[in-house]
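[SOLVED] Need 3D model of a five-part complex

Original post:
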Amino acid sequence: MNIPLLSLMTLTPLVGALVLLVLPRDRHGLIRAVALAAAGISAAAAVAVFLVYDTVRAGFQLAERLPWLPQIGIDYALAVDGSSVVMLLLTGIVIVTGVLISWRVDYRPKDFFALLLLLVAGVYGVFCSTDLFFFFFWYEVAVLPMYLLIAVWGSTNKEYGALKLTLMLVAGSILIWIGLLMLYVASGINSFDLFRLQHITFDPLTQSIAFLLFMIGFGVLAGMWPLHTWSPDGHVAAPTAVSMLHAGVLMKLGAFGILRIAMTLLPEGARIWLPVLLVLATVNVIYGALSAMSQRDLKYVIGYSSVSHMGYVLMGLASLSLIGTTGAVLQMFSHGIMTALFFAMVGVIYDQAHTRDIAAFRGLICTMPAVSVLFILAGLASLGLPGLSGFVAEFLVFSGLAQAQAWLFVVLAVVGVAITATYVLRLIARVFFGPPEAAWRALRDGTPLDVAAGASLAFVLVAVGLYPAPLIGPIVGSVLPIVRRLGGVE
Amino acid sequence: MVTTASAWLLPALPFLAFLLTATLGRWLPGQGAGIAIVLTGAGAVLWAPLLGALFVEGPQLYQPVWFTVGGDALHVSYIVDPLAALVLGVVLICSTHIQVYALGYMGGEARFGWFFAVVALFTAAMLGLVLSASLLTLYVCWEVVGLCSYLLIGFWFDRPAAVEAAKKAFITTRVGDVGLLIGILLLFRATGTLDIPAIVTAVQQGAIDGGTLTAAAILVLLGAFGKSGQFPLHVWLPDAMEGPTPVSALIHAATMVTAGVYLVARLFPIFEAAPVALAVVAAVGLISAAGASLLALVQTDIKRILAYSTISQLGLMFAALGTGFLPAAIFHLTTHAAFKALLFLAAGSVIHGTTRQKLDELGGLRRSLPVTAFTMLAGAAALAGVPLTSGYFSKDEILLGLLDRSTLLFVATLAVSALTAFYTFRLWVRAFLGPDQMHGHAHESPAVMLGPLVAFTVPSLLLGFLLFIPFGPSANIIAFLAGETGHPPAQYAEIGSYYHAHHEATPNGLVLGTSAAAALAGAGAAWAVYRSGARIRRRLPGAAVLERGFFIDALYRWLTTQVVMRLSAFFAWFDRRWVNDAGVNGAGRLPAVVGGALRTLQTGNLSTYALAIVAGMALIAGIILWSGR
Amino acid sequence: MIPLEAVAGLSAVLFAIGLYGVLARRNAVLILLAVEVMLNAVALNFLGFGAFRGDLTGQVVAIFVICVAAAEVGLALGILLRLHRNRQTVDIDRLDELKW
Amino acid sequence: MSFDGALVAFGIVAAVAIVASLGVVLARSVVSAAVSLVISLMAVAGVYVLLLADFLALVQVLIYGGAVTILLLFALMLSRTGRDSGLTTRHRPIATVAGLATAIFLGWAIVATNWFALPYAQLQRVELPIIGTALFSTWALPFEVVSLVLLVALIGAAVIARTGDAP
Amino acid sequence: MTALYLLLPELLIGGLAFLVLAADLLLPARRAPIVGWLAALGMLALAFFCATWWGAAGAMGELYVLDRFALLFKILALVMGAIVILMSLDYARRRLPGAGEYYGLIVFAALGMALMTGATELLTAYIGLELLNFSLYVLVSYSKWNPKSNEAGTKYILLGAISSAVLLYGLSLLYGLTGTTNYAGIAQALASGTPSPGLVAALVLILGGLGFKIAAVPFHMWAPDAYQGAPTPIAALLAVAAKAAGFGLLVRLLAEALPSTLPLIGPPLAAVAAATMVLGNTVAIRQRNLKRLLAYSSIGQVGYLLVGLAGFGAGAAEAIVFHLAGYAATNFAAFLVVIIVENRTGDEDIDDYAGLAERAPFAAFALTAAFFSLAGLPLLAGFVTKFYLFLTAAQAGLIWLVAIGVTMSVVSLYYYLMVIRQLYVVAPIKVGPLPMTATERALLSVLVVATIAIGVAPAPLFVIVRSAVAPLFG
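Solution:
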């Protein structure tokens, strides 16, 4: 494939953002079209990457390399392996649906979409860059527009949420920065290239310290307990599309970082710290689920549920088993879609009802059937109902943990699923079922765009739930060498 | 020619019906109800040749691959053996007839199509569950069945009681499923595979140590008891009556609730290797049987009486399994499906005709609802175990097995049978005999509802005779279930299907006599007490306790509201107050505080600045000397 | 027989005295005086080291130091006069409008 | 001059310089501070003579003695408004400590290092023309730049101090 | 005769200065902008001229050298001077009386910077430094009717005088120890000897004197007051150009004269770096005046540069110059926006910037880009330059210092976000658009594009910086 697919995918949103900046402020139609075009092209490229990726050959493909600062050993290097292909697909889907859902943003849409595209460019970049410097570069690009997106277009206590989210993510990123510098210096090969660093065995002390730094740094983004508090507040404050992108994709960046950098380069460090991660992740699951149960705001419930589900991802990674880690990456994908659908639908409800207080709603399914059905579907996926992607991912994570003989954690994780079922069903019963409230008589169902976006997400949930092989193939290909290097269970 | 390999068609047809009605429902004739019935009916029709194929080929196992993760391939494997074949038949026949009945009962419903779509999905999932030979597919169908039960109980979602009941049902079964999933994972860890045949052979070769096996078995039991509404996870079944009656008939009587029994039967070799687990099965079975029958005595709602009776009969089946007599349990499952479905449909017809379901408001309906009265009598007789009815014979088989084990169990079961007979006829007598409470306003149900009623009376009365006529290659139904189909035992063992040299069940006079006596005594007593239509006001001793369901419901509610909610409130508070405000904001404010302090150094006075320069140099000198020493 | 240490010592003492003057005086012009003392000490130091090495660099640098010192005084007084004309004071303790 | 004579002369001149400098920083009146500055500068000029750098002494006397002191006196006179309360800041004690510490530190630095120094006897006078040529050859660049520095100071003082062009 | 042609750039700059002063005398007061344009274009032309000399190299006796490093700083000095002049065209017309000499002094300042960084001998370097200082003393107190400017000027000149006395005393001790004032000679003399108390005293005093110049903590106290008091373009000159030249001098001094003393001055430099970063960034949080905030922010930035000095070496020197280039473009952009707002509304407080995005979208965007670059976020210069700076410090084993550095970057992001919040989130108090003159818009665009360009494609600049620093390390 001669056209540089990965660069096309990553840079299209940036170009889109620049084009948007030039457009006149009041041409909302044109602005939305350009935004959708940019998102669409990048998503198409992501899908093309997914299709072109040869699962049999596995390993890193579609590599592109451009010397950027050779003197220091930094190249603009892009390549994808199994897991990044899946995550790129997720990003493509979520950004397109995000833009569709944001069709109704009418306060300065130009800046909104420009910043949103910047955010997604950062995310694309992270998933497919194999140069550690650029991994960090794109990671920070994703954080760059965060404050303004939430502070200007957000909702409940948006400034506090925006500030806390941005600062905690940047605080997390400095730990990664120090970790990178330590690796660079310890390696002595004067290069940030992932492949060359892979062949170096660092001394145990550096490995242990560096892994801890990466774990905490990426843990902040992955919503690891106790660094998770930005997630509920941030997502509640953020506008719909941003929470979709953020909870759906950005939180996976954290887990992906741990997999791509920490576990690949520092096997010794992993063996020391993964058990700790397993404990923290379990706390994530139970703590998140229980906190979600007594929240009064719809988005807070989803926020805490994201914390809980990210717990499963981290458990999968920490299970040191092939099936578990594959489950973790699949859970990243499935939870990404699920949360995006959740936030999309809540966004539609909030735009008409202007409140997200659970107590205020009742019988929404009568006035907003499509939105309610899609929300319920997302709810069922989140409680791990078979036939939807949630179940497959969680089942793999649990089998992975079982293989690793971590029985206490298996029990706690499955109990977590039960608690999730409780609060999801309580929410659905309370908000959607029951006699319709007179106050919400005026609510109209989501616009065709909203329903289309929601339906496509729902379709993905069901498709992956029924036939996950197309995703699991590439993931296993990329995770196998890592688990083998860590000496995990195959 | 239909072969066992095409068994996967059976679940596929209803699933296709679900897809069609759910998506194109609005534009299909009768909102898709017709499609659902036709396709399920086709499945039922296909069942007979499949049975024939089984007789010819013997038990077969097919293992198509779903997806592979590294070395391990996850199969969507399915098995056709006597156990599966029989239950398939039960599900298909019950589902078809009940859907026909539902045409009438659900007539004016707004979301008529959606009801049939979910019922079709349920049928497909139940068939899938019965056929599956891999723990993975079994668990998948198990959950989908639970989902359908949730959607159907909460069908009238504008009624808060229905929504609450649906939520309660799903969560309680979900709690059970937690055990099931962990059990599956334990087995997966021990044997490295999810396919039941491989696990069974591993267990039979003693590859798994006793402790793990027992733990896995008991955990799997947790799931079974959740789904079959056995103690302690039975609280949801009575509330599930909030759903439409056809649902109660199909799901909460004939098929879904028996999934627990079927699961234990399918994994029976594992339970045989874990005697402790078998004992638990028997014990819980008996407790549920006794407890539920006592509770049924004090119920006034006719559907709730039948619900408790279902729990009780399932308890009997578990008791039979617990004592090692799988064929007896499965035969009782079959007969129970027939007469319990009949009773529920009849109850539905009563409700349809009188729009009331409280015993106090009913009475003397034999004149206005003759067909319903007669068919319900047949059902009641079978349930009570009146001689020559199917219930009588299937219960005898169980009693036979229990007598072998211990007389105490036998006597207890007899008492339960008597109680069953009593509350069944209490229901029938108070509803149909005595003065006409409805003053002639009750009207008989339309033909489309009465048809299935009559259809179900046939098996309720005659199924018992299967014991005496050959069933395909085997001597009788019991022998068939035991695996004596003329195929080599190795074929059964190799695919992990149940095979047990069948001891000749000599029709023991004692058993036949005592069970007949118990049934007639109970029925007679009920007839005597309630014939006069007198309202017995004096309360049975301890009625208050029974009415509150041994306070188990209250216990669970207290557990969730007080313990779980309070715990979650604590976590939410802790997260907000400590982790967030103190932890994060605290750290956030630190630089500002430091900044405030350092800021005051900038006094604006020049000599302070000069002093700072000198102090700075002193500091540098200090560091150089200190580090240089 | 003047030892180098004596000259350097003298220069150090003068420097210290000048420094004290800078830190202790409130009147800007007097601070300037103190600075002049310090600069003078520096010039002496340069000369001292230069002379005892028989190298004229010391002397040349001393000349430049004196020139720069003179220029500095001129400019500083210009600014102080402007300050005095606006604020009617050269007391640095009253110059704290710009702080924190 | 006999060798020890030089030392005695140096002693006297040094003492005068130190006392005068103390006068500059401790005097209670502005005028006495100015006068003691002049004395101190002249004493230092004396040291220059003792170190056979008479040209430098001449420069010192001319520039410092003449121009700078007059300038300072003018500034002092112009800025005397009498309203100033006292001449020392509240940092006086710390200032003394700082001063002493600096003196001790530098003293220790000078004493503890063995500087390369010719004996006093071998000091030669550097002829004026040599200094002149040096200034215009090896040191030509700084010489030119110093003239620019003086020019900037000149312009600056003029611009800042002139009263014209009100806002 | 020494190769006079080597001094051609300096002579030309001096000539330009006199030309500007003469032009001011001849033209009437209202024609002042022409003088400004003459100065600015002149400097840019000279900068271009120096660029064409990029290959040339040669030493002028032991005093002065023309190598790529000196050339780079000459170009930087001229360009920065031109930018300051262009920034102050509108500002001078409104607020500064008789701006003629103003432009002349800026050219002299540029000349001072050029000399400072070209000198390889203590006296020449010192005299160059003094030329720069004197110009700045005058420029800081230039708006003489504003009492704040007087106060700032007084503090600046008095403290400047003290520091230069301290620096000179240090240099005299160094001269005493090594017998020469030429960098190479000093290095050779120090290489053999063991560190003596005299050397310690000399180093302490030199560090103190130069510390004042680059406003490192604890010698920084003059900076916030000077920036707030001085006319804003001059604050920019102080914050960027003067610091750049200060570091140029320090880098050359450490590289060519004092390499053997690095083990001695490493630890104190690290301590000063840490203190500068912490104080600069934390006190900035509490500032309500944007110019004082920029002052503390630039002190923070000096802290990062000092981290480079603490782990000094060829790589660190490159990193410092590289960061200086990015820092210059970014800070000038920020100061230009402050000037634009001050010219139109006269406000300096952060609260007056409320809703600037509505009233001057391009200015708000530029300020946001500048602040994000200072905070070290990607796509902007700050990210790459700070990354390389911390990289070299890590290679020198100062991971703890890097840790403090990155933490302070996060703190800095906080107070930058507080300002950005004012621009975009808070509703504007005053209504009506805020116009920009054509030159301001053009200059701002150039600066913003430069900031983004360095961030996105740093390789060209890096190659120039590497080749410039190479001659220092032989």
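Edit: The CA atoms of residues 72 and 78 of chain D lie 10 Å apart.
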